[in-house]
Amino acid sequence: MAEPIKVALATTATFLLLIATWTLAIDVFELSPQILPSPAAVAEAFWYGWSRGAFVPHALFTVQGALGGWAIGAVLGALAGAVVAESNVARRVLYPMVIAVQSMPTVAIAPLIVVYFGVDLPSKLVTVALLCFFPVFVNTVAGLTSADTRLLDLYRANGASRWRTLIDVKVPSAADAVFAGAQVAIVLSFIGAVVSEFVASRAGLGHLIKTFANDLNVAVMFAAIATLAVLGAGIGTALARLREAVVFWKPRHDSPRR
Predict the structure, then answer these.
(1) Of 39, 46, 80, 193, most Cβ neighbours within 10 A?
(2) What integer best gives the mean pLDDT of the chain?
(3) Which pLDDT score, from 0 to 100, does residue 68 have?
(4) Around Cβ 83, how many Cβ atoms within 10 Å?
C-alpha cells in the first residue's frame, strides 16, 4: 500500500477515535455544552461560520499576521545565523543577545509591542517575527557549522573564496536544518498571532475566541480553534512538501524502505 494512503488512513482512524472518545466523555460525565460541546455542535458552528462568511475575515487576518511575521522572522533568522556562523566576533556579540531576547516570554512583552505598534497588523507581525526568529537562527548556525570538513578542506586547498565555499558547501549542508527550523517556526507563528490577538486586536481568530469566551459560546470557540488547527496543519504540510522538493538529496526517515 502506498505511503500517502497509509498516512491518510491512520489520520482518519485517529480522528474518528478522537470523536468517539469526545462523545463518550460527554455522555459518561454528563458534561454541559458550556463546558464541552458535542462534536455535532462544533461542526454546526464551524459550517455556519464558514458558509455565512463570518470566519473568513478573521481567518485571513490571522493568516496574514502569521505568514507575514513568519517570513520576516525566518529571513532575519537565516541572515543573522549566517553572520554568526561565519564570524567569531558576531558569535561572541550577537549570540548572547539573541538568547537574552528569546528568554523573555512573548506573553510578557506582547502588551509592550501593542503599545509601540498599535492593535492592527504591525504588532502581530512583530510578535510573530520575534517567535519565529530563534528556531531558524539556531538551525542556520548549526547547519552552517556542521558542513563536511573534507569538502571544506578541499575547497581551501584549491584556493576557493570564502563566499564560494559558503554557497557551494555550507548552504547546501545547512538547507535541511534551515527548513526544519522554518517548520518549527510556522507552528509558532500561529501561536504568536493568536497571543497578539488575545492581548489587543479588532480582528483575527484569537479575537473571535476571546469575544465568544465572554458569551460562554464554547461551540464557536472550538470551531475557531479547529480552524486554526486546519490552517496550521495545511500550511505546515505544504512547507514539508516544499522541503522535500528543495532538499531532495537528503533521505527522509518516513520514506518507504526498499
Answers:
(1) 193
(2) 90
(3) 97
(4) 16
